[in-house]
Design goal:
CATH class of the largest domain: Alpha Beta
Order of helices and strands: EEHEEEHEEEHEHEEHEHEEEEHH
Strand order of the largest sheet: 6-1-2-5-4-3-7
Oligomer: single chain
Number of strands: 16
CATH superfamily of the largest domain: Nucleotide-binding domain of ferredoxin-NADP reductase (FNR) module
Number of domains: 3
Shape: globular
Largest sheet: 7 strands, antiparallel
Distance between the termini: 39 Å
CATH topology of the largest domain: Rossmann fold
Structural class: alpha/beta
Length: 292
């Protein structure tokens, strides 16, 4: 069992968990992930490491509530426990002094690019961080990213804060204006990473994407995370999670992302019904006790 030390909502639908995991914290490297199983009937889900502290013996995860297991994680309180935690897994990011690097994050990926931007800045790179959200109330960690970036751009789809648009818009504008960017990292939803890769391809700017969203088992045993990269079959969990975004077969990846969609929907419906029954029963018991 792994103890939850901090549990807080960063923005609607995005939750932060700091977990006691000294062995993982000592060995973690930028770009790696862990596989979490919240309870005996929970699925195994891969989550990027948003931070870790070897001396404190903790890791930090930023969780986006999508299905049953992520909702269970978000519901955990401080002093709660997670049943199983495996990691660090995956190949670490290749970090060196590249020059000017754009780190792009959306949703949970905003948290995931934090250690990446920090490490790149430490090695002397010029770091441009770009984060996106549908609206300003879904942006987070601007202050943290500002500290490790030479430039921070935040975009919102509705224009409520920062640049009106999505992450690829200011990136494309910079490239069209002739700004030299040596490398791009993109962490977030599959659609965002695809758009970033398409935007940089015509300019010949190498782009690395993290394919965590397609994983299930996270150790190469299930085969669900098979992807085609440069015409070769790769496993996102053991050969990645990072790959060349220009070489990924995005059409095939989009198709594979929906493999278990119906099962995931049914699982979430059952969970929500169970939660409704549990909360209703508690309310009725409390009402009976008050009357007594």
């Amino acid at each position: 069992m792994y103890k939850v030390l901090v549990s807080e909502q960063l923005v609607p639908n995005i939750h932060l968990l700091k977990i006691e995991a000294p062995t993982i914290a000592r060995k973690a490297l930028v770009g790696q992930f862990v596989v979490v199983m919240v309870d005996e009937v929970g699925e195994r889900i891969p989550l990027s490491l948003a931070d870790w502290d070897a001396e404190e013996g903790t890791i930090t995860l930023v969780v986006m509530q999508v299905g049953t297991s992520t909702r269970k994680l978000a519901a955990l309180k401080a002093d709660g426990c997670i049943l199983s935690l495996a990691g660090p897994l995956g190949l670490p990011s290749h970090i060196e002094r590249f020059g000017t690097v754009a780190c792009i994050g959306g949703c949970y990926g905003i948290g995931a690019i934090m250690p990446l931007a920090r490490s790149l800045k430490h090695l002397g790179n010029t770091v441009i961080s770009i984060i996106e959200a549908r609206s300003k109330n879904l942006l987070y960690w601007q202050d943290k990213l500002q500290q490790v970036s030479d430039e921070l751009i935040f975009t919102t789809g509705d224009g409520s804060s920062g640049y009106k648009g999505w992450a690829y818009d200011p990136l494309k504008e910079m490239l069209e204006a002739g700004k030299k960017i040596d490398l791009v990292f993109a962490y977030g939803c599959t659609f965002m990473m695809r758009l970033i890769s398409e935007a940089t391809k015509s300019f010949g700017v190498k782009t690395r994407v993290a394919l965590n969203p397609i994983m299930v088992d996270g150790t190469g045993m299930c085969g669900v995370c098979r992807v085609s990269v440069g015409g070769e079959t790769k496993f996102a969990c053991v050969d990645g999670p990072e790959f060349d975004g220009h070489e990924v077969d995005w059409e095939l990846l989009a198709t594979r992302r929906t493999t278990y969609l119906e099962e995931e929907i049914r699982s979430l419906q059952r969970f929500e019904c169970q939660q409704w029954y549990f909360e209703t029963s508690k309310a009725m018991e409390a009402r009976v006790e008050r009357k007594a």
